[in-house]
């Protein structure tokens, strides 16, 4: 299922959309847009879909979505409501280039895969609620305060590193600036050969390291093991194919580089919490009717 592109138009004389969304239920509407989005669920429960991740949500669910990351919230059929959320949508270029906003800009960079905030989000929630009731410049100041507080509390990525393959090229570009030439070579090699066999020892030879040294090197650079990194990219590509095509799961498993379909099913379930057929059924069906 391809996400539809939502065109967000602030009201005349404004550059920020900040609304209280109140509906009988949140229906499944898989979409994306070029703006950042903050969504704070104030009442109701259901399932949150962000990239290739599906999770339950309830009151207090606080998420920051990066540009062009597909997402939607779908209410549980069994929850009579009310269903409500505060939603802020804004373009990063409206924030300016002030040095005081460096932490906020770093926060927005991390939101590429979406960020879920913890129970420590009491102060950002108060700021967002106040901003939603304000007007004009006070509304923007409230948003900045919200982002500033969010930059100081723990958060966790939502979508996997493998979601949206076109985003991976930009990650490689950033890594090439931030890491040494060897890790850049490794990332590009993985990207070019992702759908084929890429043994770790061969990649280690490519950058002149022993297998043990390469394992330590890669984990320091990528923050995860080589095997897990490759698996996440392949599972992310599988999720895209499950969502956007009618290809058989068996074919998809082989297409994304797994030699064994049972192995693919085991890894997929471990990474996504459900078998690939169930993931496709929920993602492409009518998830709002399931609890």
Shape: globular
CATH architecture of the largest domain: Sandwich
Any idea how many domains? 2
User: How far is the N terminus from the C terminus?
Assistant: 21 Å
In helices, the fraction of residues equals 40-55%
**Alpha plus pi helix count:** 11
Number of strands: 11
Mean pLDDT: 84
How would you sum up the major sheet? 6 strands, antiparallel
* Low-pLDDT stretches: 166-179, 286-291
Q: Please give the radius of gyration in angstroms.
A: 20 Å
Structural class comes to: alpha+beta
CATH topology of the largest domain: Jelly Rolls
List the secondary-structure elements in sequence, H or E. Answer: EEEEEEEEEHEHHEHHHHHHHH
Characterization of this structure:
This protein has 291 residues and is an alpha+beta fold. Helix 2 runs antiparallel to helix 3. A hairpin with a 2-residue loop joins strand 5 and strand 6. The longest helix has 19 residues. It folds into two domains: 154 residues, Sandwich (Jelly Rolls); 120 residues, Arc Repressor Mutant, subunit A. It has eleven helices and eleven strands. The strands form three sheets. Strands 2-9-4-7-10-11 form a six-stranded antiparallel β-sheet, covered by helices on one side. Strands 6-5-8 form a three-stranded antiparallel β-sheet, with no helix packed on it. Strands 1-3 form a two-stranded parallel sheet. The C terminus is likely disordered.
């Amino acid at each position: 299922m391809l996400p539809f592109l939502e065109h967000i138009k602030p009201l005349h004389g404004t550059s920020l959309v900040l609304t209280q969304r109140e509906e009988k239920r949140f229906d499944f509407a898989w979409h994306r847009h070029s703006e950042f989005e903050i969504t704070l669920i104030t009442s109701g429960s259901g399932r949150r879909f962000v990239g290739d991740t599906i999770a339950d949500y309830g009151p207090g669910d606080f998420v920051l979505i990066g540009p062009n990351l597909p997402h939607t919230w779908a209410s549980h059929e069994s929850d009579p409501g009310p269903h409500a959320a505060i939603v802020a949508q804004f373009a990063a270029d409206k924030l300016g280039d002030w040095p005081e906003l460096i932490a906020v800009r770093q926060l927005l960079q991390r939101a590429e895969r979406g960020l879920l905030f913890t129970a420590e989000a009491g102060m950002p929630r108060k700021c967002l609620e106040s901003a939603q009731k304000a007007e004009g410049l006070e509304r923007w100041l409230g948003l900045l305060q919200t982002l500033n507080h969010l930059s100081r509390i723990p958060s966790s990525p939502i979508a996997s590193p493998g979601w949206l393959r076109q985003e991976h090229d930009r990650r490689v570009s950033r890594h090439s600036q931030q890491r040494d030439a060897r890790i850049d070579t490794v990332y590009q090699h993985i990207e070019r050969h992702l759908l084929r066999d890429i043994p770790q020892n061969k990649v280690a030879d490519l950058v002149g390291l022993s297998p043990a040294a390469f394992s330590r090197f890669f984990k320091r650079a990528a923050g995860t093991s080589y095997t897990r990194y490759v698996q996440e990219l392949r599972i992310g590509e599988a999720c895209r194919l499950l969502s956007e095509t009618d290809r058989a799961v068996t074919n998809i498993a082989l297409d994304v580089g797994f030699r064994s379909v049972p192995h693919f099913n085991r890894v997929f379930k471990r990474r996504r919490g459900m078998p690939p057929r169930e993931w496709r059924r929920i993602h492409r069906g009518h998830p709002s009717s399931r609890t």
